[in-house]
Design a protein that fits this description.
The complex is a heterotrimer of chains A (218), B (226) and C (265).
Chain A: H1 7-11, H2 13-46, H3 50-64, H4 68-83, H5 89-114, H6 118-126, H7 131-161, H8 173-184, H9 187-217
Helix pairs in contact in A: 2-3, 2-5, 2-7, 2-8, 3-5, 4-5, 5-7, 6-7, 7-9, 8-9
Chain B: H1 8-12, H2 14-46, H3 51-65, H4 69-84, H5 90-115, H6 119-127, H7 132-162, H8 174-185, H9 188-220
Helix pairs in contact in B: 2-3, 2-5, 2-8, 3-5, 4-5, 5-7, 6-7, 7-9, 8-9
Chain C: E1 5-14, E2 17-27, E3 32-36, H1 43-50, E4 58-63, E5 66-67, E6 70-73, E7 79-82, H2 85-94, E8 95-98, H3 110-121, H4 126-139, H5 155-167, E9 173-177, H6 185-200, E10 205-208, H7 212-218, E11 221-226, E12 229-234, H8 236-241, H9 246-254
Helix pairs in contact in C: 3-4, 3-5, 4-5, 5-6
């Protein structure tokens, strides 16, 4: 029988604490940036004009159909060569996760905008609104409330994806855990605690998605 | 700032990349082989009449949906062997992790598919004397599966993307091979770009197919009954 | 002779709501019983108890003299009946049901819909099942549609296929739950005609319907259900033409389009 000993993990709470903060920081920053830029890309995707539509579509297809970890590795190892500068682990992870979030959330925006009845656009037009005004005053306010469950889900996925930054040695929670477990040879306790911390962090989000989806169905 | 591209190193190592791709497809395929039936099983437990059974299945699903796949993989690779005093190689750890993890997602797909089938279909089956199993096999599941195909393809795409995590426990999938070659040749730009393209050309057609099917199902209305 | 169906003191509750409050009913071979009553009075529930789509909370149901379920004494000293899946499946092969919304299997062709029960449940051979299915499709006048999918058929045709599907099990009794309520008015007639033919051939049936004129013309006996009890029962003339109970009169007054047909027989 294995002798569990959580003492070491708890005495290193500050190491994990830093990791947790980094995880949250990375996720939050990527979510905010990703959703904002996702709106722009989504509108471009919705546009019928090819100069907007095509680049946006290519961007979305590329980032949706390649693994995030490959994207992160590319930003970390390949991009610096192209730009001839250094890119630190945080920036590479931020770029990878943000691009990914932009690609997925732009699809949510596009879907949401498409789900609004054409009569709403026409009603706006009939009042003499410009395209931007129709979008801003009429369409988006209705669409965004429908999109909230999907965005919350993106947030959940994003927190899970931050663990990938450990592969390029960014000090988020999982990376910190890896460090502790290599120093003290206690992977069992460390990884179990970290799994639980992640669960506590993510589960409320999963629940919230459920609730919101159920409410949207009614 | 003009960089001299040199793809020769990539082509010289095409056999390593090919092996990586095969390993990636292997992990994806085998995990699906276990994950899909397991997912159906979990979905049926989730839909069981007994509250206890249903709730336990719910906890299983929630747990695996609410922890990062990489953490699950690490846990299975580093913790399970010590806990049970067994040896687990990276391949087996990956298969275990992704079978279980994807089963939680497939369970949700199956469940959504099954509850989307009108209750009248169950009743019509019962009314001609079918057992629950017969109704499931002959009536409701075939209808549900058709509706689930796009969601299935989407899950498969997600799974294949997730398999890149196995590189973190040194299983030689496509990404691991890429990293290896990049380090040996000092040509990460070419190698990672080509590998990204390889993933893209496997995943993109699948996603186009998924969307096409989705649209077709939406058009046909998929109407049951009147 | 043994009645096909005998119900004694049937109760059914959903949680706290008691929907059936003690129903007694005997149906003899070849009899056609029509159940009428306002919405929520428990007609569907009664019908669904007969083929155990709903399990009775209390009471006994005999099919061809056999008491269904097994007895189990409860803590309260009362006895109750439990029903096992294998028993229920067997009972349901002897009771045919036609639903308001047809509930055809949309992924199967018309022929396959009708064959499904004989093949999967009765386990007769593919060839025999096919012959039997065609025979019953012929009977409802739809043999030529056997290779179509249900979605291609009109509502009336779909409902006739559903009737054939139930008949193909060669049941001892048929249950119809508002078989025409989901149909466009011009399609109601063909389905009612099919049901009427069944009666003329001596099929035993319980029919729930809002078509009072039809009830009058097919029923041997009419039951007026009110608040989970049989409030009034008798021949069509007794219940529909000279109802004794105030509730029955009020209910019939609500169906003012009903006119007693002139006796033509
Ligand atoms: N599965 C159920 N769970 C809870 N309540 C139910 C259920 N089925 C029926 N009821 C309730 O039982 C009562 C009787 O329903 P039932 O369907 O038997 O009425 P009905 O006479 O067939 O009415 P209608 O003419 O509208 O079909 C209603 O109040 C209904 O809400
Ligand atoms: Mg009813």
């Amino acid at each position: 029988m294995y002798n569990w000993d959580f003492g070491i993990v708890f005495s290193n709470w500050n190491v994990l604490g830093i990791g947790l903060l980094n995880t949250i920081k990375l996720a939050a920053l990527c979510l905010v940036t990703g959703l904002s830029l996702g709106l722009l890309v989504g509108i471009a995707r919705y546009s019928k004009r090819k100069i907007f539509n095509w680049p946006a579509s290519i961007f979305v297809e590329v980032f949706r159909n390649t693994p995030v970890l490959v994207q992160i590795m590319w930003f970390f190892f390949a991009l610096p060569i192209l730009l001839q500068t250094q890119i630190n682990a945080f920036s590479a992870a931020f770029l990878g996760l943000t691009m990914n979030t932009i690609a997925f959330s732009s699809e949510i925006f596009r879907g949401g905008i498409q789900s609004i009845a054409p009569g709403q656009w026409e009603a706006g037009k009939a009042l003499g609104m410009t395209y931007v005004q129709q979008m801003q005053r009429v369409i988006l306010p209705q669409a965004i409330s429908r999109m909230i469950p999907a965005f919350t889900n993106r947030g959940v996925e994003l927190v899970k994806m931050t663990t990938l930054a450990s592969v390029i040695a960014f000090g988020e929670l999982l990376h910190q855990a890896k460090t502790i477990s290599t120093i003290y040879f206690n992977p069992i306790e460390t990884y179990t605690v970290v799994a639980l911390i992640f669960f506590v962090l993510i589960y409320p989000g999963t629940l919230l998605v459920r609730k919101l989806e159920k409410r949207a169905d009614q | 700032m003009s960089y001299e591209w040199d793809f020769a190193v990539v082509f010289q190592n095409y056999d390593l990349l090919l092996l990586g791709l095969i390993n990636t497809l292997n992990v994806t395929g085998v995990s699906l082989l276990f994950g899909i039936p397991l997912g159906l099983f979990v979905a049926l437990l989730r839909l069981a009449d007994s509250k206890w059974v249903s709730r336990s299945a719910g906890i299983f699903i929630e747990f695996f949906r609410s922890t990062p796949p990489l953490v699950q993989l690490f846990w299975i690779f580093f913790v399970l062997p010590i806990l049970f005093d067994i040896a687990i190689d990276p391949y087996s750890a990956s298969i275990i992790a992704f079978s279980i993890q994807s089963s939680a997602f497939f369970a949700e797909v199956f469940r959504a598919g099954l509850i989307s089938i009108d209750r009248g279909q169950w009743e019509a089956g019962y009314a001609i004397g079918m057992t629950r199993k017969q109704v499931l096999r002959r009536v409701t599941l075939p209808q549900a599966v058709k509706r689930m195909i796009p969601a299935f393809l989407e899950r498969i795409i997600e799974l294949m993307k997730t398999t890149t995590l196995v590189s973190a426990i040194s299983y030689s999938d496509l990404l691991f091979q890429a990293n290896d070659i990049a380090q040996q040749t000092y040509r990460p730009l070419e190698v990672f770009s080509v590998v990204a393209a390889m993933y893209f050309f496997v995943l993109w057609p699948t996603s186009v197919a998924a969307r096409g099917l989705e649209r077709r199902l939406a058009v046909s209305g998929e109407s049951t009954a009147a | 002779m043994e009645p096909i169906l005998k119900i004694e003191d049937l109760h059914k509750s959903f949680g706290r709501l008691e929907v059936l409050k003690g129903i007694d009913l005997t149906v003899n071979k070849g009899e056609t019983i029509v159940l009428i009553g306002s919405s929520g009075s428990g007609k569907s529930t009664l019908l669904r108890c007969v083929n155990f789509l709903e399990l009775p909370s209390q009471g006994c149901i005999y099919l061809k003299g056999i008491l269904q379920g097994t007895e189990k004494s409860m803590k309260s000293g009362k006895t109750n009946r439990v029903y096992h899946e294998s028993q229920l499946c067997k009972v349901r092969t002897q009771v045919g049901m036609v639903f308001q919304h047809f509930n055809l299997f949309p992924h199967m062709k018309v022929l396959e819909n009708v064959m499904e029960g004989p093949k999967t449940v009765l386990r007769i051979s593919q060839k025999e099942a096919e012959q039997r299915a065609l025979q019953y499709l012929e009977k409802v006048g739809l043999a030529d549609k056997s290779q179509s999918y249900p979605a291609r058929l009109s509502g009336g045709q779909q409902q006739r296929v559903a009737i054939a599907r139930a008949l193909a099990m060669e049941p001892d009794i048929m249950l119809f739950d508002e078989a025409t309520s989901a149909l466009d008015p011009e399609l109601v007639g063909e389905v009612l005609l099919a049901i009427k033919e069944l009666r003329d051939e001596g099929m035993t049936m319980i029919i729930v319907t809002h078509e009072i004129g039809f009830a009058y013309s097919v029923a041997d006996k009419i039951l007026f259900l009110h608040h989970g009890k049989i409030h009034e029962a008798g021949t069509p003339d007794e219940v529909l033409v000279r109802p004794k109970e105030q509730r029955t009169k009020e209910f019939l007054a609500g169906h003012n389009q009903f006119q007693i047909p002139q006796h033509s027989e």
